[in-house]
Amino acid sequence: MTVNGLFPENIDWTQEALDFLVNLYPLKQEKDLARIRNASTSLMCRHAHALAATLVQLEDEVTARVMYTTDTTIPGFLPVAEVVALIEGEVIRVCSQADFTFPVGEKNVVIPVRAGAFSGMLVLSYRQDFLMDAGFFRFLENTWTGLKDITMLVQTYYAFEQLTTRFNAIMGTIEASIVFVDDSGKEGWVNAAAAKLLQLEVNRNSAMALADAMRKLRMAAHNQDEIAAVGATLFTHPNQTVKEWKWIFGNPVTRVLNVSCVPATSANINGRLWVFTDITQLYLTNIELAAQRKLADEQNIAKSDFLANMSHEIRTPMNGVIGMTSLLANTPLSEEQRDYVETIRISGESLLSIINDILDFSKIESGKMELEHRAFRISTVIEETYDLLSVKANEKELDLLYYIEPNVPIEIMGDVTRFRQILVNLVSNGLKFTEKGEVLVTAETVHAADGYYTLKFTVKDTGIGIPADKMHKLFDSFSQVDSSTTRKYGGTGLGLAICQKLVALMDGNITVESEYGHGSAFIFTIRVQANTQAIHYNARKKEAAVRLAGKSILILDDNSTNLKILSRQCEWWGMHAVAVQHYEAAFEQLAQTRFDIAMIDMMMPGKDGIEVGTIINETNPYLPLVLFSSAGYLPSDRNIGDIFKAVLNKPIKHNQIEDALLTVLGQYAQTAEVTGLPATAPVKEAMSLNILVAEDDEINQKLIKRALEKLGYAHDIVGNGKLAVACVNSKPYHLVFMDVMMPEMDGYEATRLITEQLGGKRPVIIGLTANALAGDKEKVLAGGMDDYLSKPYKIQDIKNIIVKWESKMQQNDNG
Ligand code: ADP
How far apart are CA 750 and CA 766, in angstroms? Predict the structure, then answer.
């Protein structure tokens, strides 16, 4: 007989080990994890004949918890460091109280237990004189495996229970109805919400009951045919996933379920997960929103249409106002009257420009803006824009500069008018909000593939800038940074909104960068095709490069941006460029180096271009000089021709520099091909013409009458299409201006009759239209007219269109 922890008298350790294992295995049937743990620890204590057995778990770096002990005097926690040291290496140790401060027993046996996530030890406590012989250690070895086994089981039970608890908590809480169907067809599982939806038991149901419940639900749906169609694909393709599948009940809708069905498979389990979410509220709200959006879109289009139409209607009488004013200005007037007339003209034109803005804006809004697709040259558009705005730039002594990277195609396909409109808007804003410095336009290719180029344009000024918190509003219609801006700078706040819309039509976007007080940069991109007919910018530059290569040039300008651009341009031609910002630096350079040519800016602080040129001429009489000047700013009393070989007007055009350099350097004779036609082509003597005007509006009649008189053409005027047809049949006319909208017979019908009656001998017919909406031009041309003029038109427009058709009229005359 032995007493636990006392001196063992002939203990049969093999029998004890067997008894321990035999008693341990029934414990596995237990469901209560704590009981398994406690009972196995007690069992070990008994069969090991120990004073006490204690199970310790290492929970984390700071906690070693006593999970169970047969001796209640043992504290709940043990020193972690000691526990860690004891279980290291996973060997059974016998510790005296000197190396392990355990409160019971003079001798303690530590059995490390690691299984799954469990890490800890079982401590058996004995008296000092307990005999630990070979049989005892065999007992420990034999029972150790059983201990680990049971701990592993406890861990697995625990993990499973944890998972089940979480799973049930989630499934019981979420609103969605969840169904899991086993592919073996044996079982189905539903959560509480699904049980309610399908009128089943929570959790397990027979597959048959589940299938039946799902079928009933499907058959109750209003769109059951649609559901059946999707369902069919699901059963033929078992791995398919279906999402956003709407099951709609009731008509009108009372309930909408959003159904997802996904395969749920693992190595051992095959099944499908169904999720039913009630989205009735969302569905109804979306229907309502879609209806509201449609209504709003329709109202928006109607509003834009109204604005567009109204703007036209205003443009027609404005035509009369502006036209008559320009005629009036050409009559003898007193100083006071001239002043009044000029005020009317300026007010009229600014009103017209506002109306044009509104018209453009509403045309784009209502989707009526169609873009042309024709080749144009980017540099030309920039130069035209600068020409248009040069008066303003000169007034404020601002430089207008541009630089086009060589990777930009020389000509692109697109709508030149709209592209110019964007540039004019941005550059004129730049000029408007800048008091000193420059406006610079740069162009570069940022992406090119499959014949398409994404071009980036930057319009950068050195003006007042835009506060950061105002930038996001800039592109909104009618928005200005500061409401006092309207009074100070003018404008409607529509310009940028129009630019943004036009840029979007060109597949691009527009952004702004600015530092308040230090200027702004408007950056826009467009996506275009290059005109493959045109030589590449590169190729053209190469031509000049051959002739200019190796020459050295001195450039003097106080504007550093301009210096940079000019140097880059000259270097591109292979020239050696030295750029200086001050005349003293120029003189120094000239004293040291021999140059082939020098370019000098007119307006500089200290000494102007002419003074500097005069000095250089005295010291370097053989150095050819070129002057940049602003039109109208050259003093007439100084003999510029003696000092400079060429004078270039600002804004500086790169082609002109190239021509000037080539000419001055004497290696290249100027030809029409390079310079383009002279701006003032000799005007041919006006042909003597008979013109018929068919126009019902009295003011417009007067206007065109005076214009034709001024241009010196004989003409007759009639008030409707019927009279026009009668006239051309009774008298030969070269040209008919045909208003398209007239009472009794409109311009289209009259044109049709005239063409029918006179065939090839009919006069040239120019349609007069007040509409500038997309499709008008096509309508006029399709109606058989030769060309069109849209109102309001100026004398120059009438003149241009007559000149355009002169040769055709001459042919008619001869034929
Ligand atoms: P507006 O006809 O008033 O010029 P925009 O749409 O062209 O209309 O410009 C809107 C506002 O954006 C301007 O009133 C001005 O406050 C600001 N803005 C536009 N361009 C610039 C610029 N280059 N520098 C500073 N502010 C600018």
Answer: 12
Q: Which residue among 423, 429, 516 has the greatest number of ligand 1 atoms within 8 angstroms of its CB, and so is best to mutate?
A: 429
pTM for the whole thing?
Answer: 0.52
Bridge pairing between strands 690-694 and 735-739: parallel
What is the C-alpha separation between 53 and 11, in angstroms, rounded?
A: 18
User: Which 3 state secondary structure label does DSSP give 628?
Assistant: strand
Ligand 1 pocket, Cβ-based, cut-off 6 angstroms: 425, 429-430, 433, 461, 463-464, 466, 474, 480-481, 485, 491-497, 520
> How many other C-beta atoms can be found within 10 angstroms of the C-beta atom of residue 525?
18
Cα(526) to ligand 1 centroid in Å equals 21
Report residue 62: phi and psi, to 5°. Answer: -115, -5
Report the distance separating Cα 484 and Cα 770, nearest Å. Answer: 35
CA distance 139 to 15: 9
Q: 305: CA distance to ligand 1 center in Å?
A: 26
**What does the pLDDT read at residue 310?**
77
Ligand 1 atom 8: residue of nearest CA? 493
Best residue among 480, 520, 523 to mutate for probing ligand 1, ranked by most atoms within 8 Å of CB:
480
Integer Cα distance of 751 and 488 in angstroms: 50
pLDDT score at 637: 63
pLDDT of res. 82: 85
Tell me which H or E stretch contains 2.
none
Rounded CA Rg of the chain: 47
Q: Give nearest CA residue, ligand 1 atom 25.
A: 465
**Which tokens hold the place of 250?**
């009731």
Other Cβ atoms within 10 Å of 704 Cβ, number: 24
Report which residue type is found at 417: T
What averages of pLDDT result for each successive group of 10 residues across the chain (815 residues)?
53 92 86 85 94 92 90 87 86 82 82 86 90 90 87 82 88 88 76 89 79 90 90 80 91 90 81 91 92 89 78 78 85 88 83 81 78 90 88 88 90 92 94 94 93 95 91 76 58 84 94 93 95 61 71 92 90 90 92 91 88 89 86 65 83 83 63 30 56 87 83 87 90 91 88 90 88 70 87 79 84 69
Beta-carbon contacts of 458 under 8 Å, excluding residues fewer than 6 positions away, are 440, 441, 442, 521, 522, 523
Neighbours of 332 (CB within 10 A): 6
* Three-class SS of 591-620: HHCCCCEEEEECCCCCCCHHHHHHHHHHHC
Q: What's the pLDDT at 538?
A: 53
Q: Which of 440, 441, 458, 474 to mutate to test the pocket of ligand 1 (most atoms within 8 A of CB)?
A: 474
Q: Which two tokens stand for residue 13?
A: 């350790």
- The CA 489 to ligand 1 mean position distance, Å, reads 9
CA of 512 to the centre of ligand 1 (A): 11
- Determine which residue's CA is closest to atom 13 belonging to ligand 1: 480
In this predicted structure, what is the pLDDT of residue 505?
93
| Token pair for 594 | 């021999």
Contact 737, 692 (CB under 8 A): yes
What is the rounded CA–CA span in Å between residue 286 and residue 244?
15
Alpha-carbon distance of 143 to 24, in angstroms, equals 10
Pocket-testing residue among 481, 501, 513, 514, ligand 1, by greatest number of atoms within 8 A of Cβ:
481
Structure tokens at 140: 């420990």
Cβ 194 vs Cβ 260: under 8 Å: no
Ligand 1 atom with minimal separation from the 491 CA: 2
Indicate the residue type of 560: S
Q: From 417, 415, 439, select the one nearest 427 (Cα to Cα).
A: 439
**Residues 54, 69 contacting (CB under 8 angstroms):** yes
DSSP state of 53: E
Give the Å distance between the CA of 493 and the centre of ligand 1: 7
Contacts of 758 (CB under 8 A, 6+ apart): 728, 729
